[in-house]
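Co-fold these.
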Amino acid sequence: MTNNRSWIPYLLILPSVAFLALLFIVPLLQTIWLAFSDNGVPSPANAQRMMADINFTRSIKNTFLLTIAVVPVQLAIALVMGTMVAKVGRGRETILWVWTIPLGISDLAAGLVWLSILQNSGYFNSLLLGLGVLERQASWLSYQTPVALFFAIAVAEIWRGTAIVMVIIVAGLNQVPREFKEAAEIFGAGAWTRFWRITLPLIRPALQSALILRTVLAFEVFAVVYALGGRNFPVLVGEAYNWQNQNQNYGVAAAYAVLIMIISLAATLIYLKAIKVDPERLP
Amino acid sequence: MANIVIDRIRKSFGTFEALKEVSLTINDGEFVSLLGPSGCGKTTLLRIIAGLETSTSGDVLIGGKSVIGLPPKERGLAMVFQNYAVFPHMTVYENVAFGLRMQKADDARVKAQVEKAAGLLHIEQYLDRYPNKLSGGQRQRVAVARALAVEPKVLLMDEPLSNLDALLRLEMRAELKTVLQSAGTTTIYVTHDQTEAMGLSDRIAVMHNGVVEQVGTPVDVYNYPATRFVGGFIGNPPMNFIKVPVTNGQVAAGSEPLTAPEETGNEVILGLRGEAVQLAPLPLGLEMKVRVAEPMGSHLLLTGSIHDQPVRVVLPSSETVRSGDVIGLKLDPNRITWLSPESGKSFPAATA
Ligand SMILES: Nc1ncnc2c1ncn2[C@@H]1O[C@H](COP(=O)(O)OP(=O)(O)OP(=O)(O)O)[C@@H](O)[C@H]1O
Ligand SMILES: [Mg+2]
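Predicted complex below.
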C-alpha cells in the first residue's frame, strides 16, 4: 500500500527544489555561462585572462595559506573552548553567549574593529608605546610587512570565525553521553586518551560539519582582508570584486566565482571522504 | 587483600538525600549483592565506590587504603554499567579489549583474554560487529565481557543480566559465579531480582530509601528479616505481617499459644513466611479465611485473611482447600519473626 505512493516524498520536496532551482541553480548556470563565453559564444578567454593576471597566483596562494593557517587553529580553539565549557555548571549559558558575540558582528565591522586596533595610531601601538616596548609607531598592515599583515588578518579571521565552529562542536559534545567517558575512565584511560579515543571519534559528524562550513567560508574570505590589507593582500573573492567593480569586467569576475566554487566543492568532497561518518558507529 | 569498607557514606543531590549513612564491609573475594527497589540508591553507591561520584561525607577503603579523592583508574576496579556504556565506535572485540589496551597489554594477551571473556558470555560470533547492530542483551554481555577481560581485583556490576531471557540469565549467572569464585574477585552485584541475589551471593545487602536495612547471608535475610521492609521485599509470596494482641507475654494461635518477645507491649506484629505453616483441624490451628485457592502444581497458594488482615500462605499441593473454606493453620514457632508495630524492626529471635 505504501509502495504505490512512493511519489509523495518527491512531491513534498518539490517546493524547496523549485525554490533552489530558481534562486541558486539559474544564477549558477548564468555565472558559468558568463565565465566561459565571450560575446555569446563559448570561449576560454575569460579564464585565460584571469590566469594571466599578475594577482591571480598571489590571490590563490594567499587564500590557501590563510585557510591552512586559520581553519586548524579555529578547530583546535573551538575544541578547547567546547571541552572547557562542558565542565562548567553554572554560568555555562552566559559563557557560551559571550563567546558567540563575534558571530553577530558582520565581517566588515569585524575587519574595522581589528583595523582600529592594528592601524598605525591604533590601540596596539598605543599599548606597546605605553609599555615602552616601541619607540615610535610601527606599521603592521603595509605591503612592506607582509608577515605581520598575514598574521593580523589570520588573527582577525580566527577571532571572527571561531564561534561558529565552537557552536557546532558544543552541539556535538552535548550529544556524547557521559557514560562513555566514565567507562573509559574506569578502564584506565587518562584525560588525553579519553579525548582522542572516545570523544573525538564520537563527535565526527560535528567535526565534519564544522570543517566543511568553516573551510568553505575561509575560501570566501574577503571583508576582513579588505578592511585590514586593502589591495596589499589579494585574495580570490577580492579579485572577483575588483574585476566586477573596478574593471567592470563581469566575465573575469565570473571566472573567479566559478573557481572559488570548484575549490569549495573539492574541499567539501575531501572532508566527506576523509572524515567518514558511519551511522553504524554512532551512539 | 581487596576488601571494601564503606564507612558512613552520605550523598545528597541538592536537598534530596540519596544515601543516608551507608556502611558496609565486603571481604576479600566475597560476592555481595545490593538488592533493593528502584531509586533506593544502588547505582549511586556503586558510582561512589568507583569514583565517578563524590560522596557528601564518609569514607571508602579498598584493600585497607582510603580511595576518596583517587581517580577511578587508580582504584583497581572494573565496572559493568547499568546502561552498558559499550563504545559505539569500536568493534565488540575492541570494546572487550579496551581495558587491556589501556594497560598496554601485548596483543597475544589481549587476544587470549578477549576470547576467554567472549566465550564465557557467548559473544564470540559478534566480535567483528559494531555494538549498534547488537540486541540489548548482546550489548549487555559485551559490557560484562569488557569488565571480566581485565580480571579485576574488584568488580562492580550494576544489573548486568537484567536484559537477558530467563534461560540465558540462569546460565550466565552460574558461569559468572564460577569464574568470579575461582578468580577470587571481590564483587558487588546490584540487582532487582531477588532470586538472582539469593542464588549468587555470599551475602545480601538490602537497601531501601538510601539506607542498608540488613546485611546477611541469603538464608538469614530470608528467614530473619531485620525489618518489615526486608520481609516484604524478599520472598514470593512476601512475608505476611499480622498485628496480634499480646496477653501475659503470649499470643493466641489456636490451641498452642506462642511466646512473644519480652519487649513487646499490648500488640506485636507476627511475621510469617507463607510456607512456614501446616494445615491443622480448626480448634487446634489459627483460623484463616480462604478467599482464593490457587493450585500451582508444585504447591497450593492460598490468599485470604487472618485476624481480618490479608495473608498469603503456601501449602503442599497434596492438600485440598477450596475457595471460601475456613481452615486452621499450625505455625512453626522457629520460623516466626516478631516485629515492633512502632518501628517496624524485628526483635532478636527469642525462640532460637
Ligand atoms: N545526578 C543526580 N541528581 C539528582 N538526583 C539523583 C542523581 N542521581 C541519582 N539521583 C537520585 O538518587 C536516587 C537513587 O538513584 P540510583 O540511581 O542510585 O537508584 P538505583 O537504586 O540504582 O535505582 P534503579 O534500580 O532504578 O537503577 C534516585 O531517587 C535518583 O532520582
Ligand atoms: Mg541503578
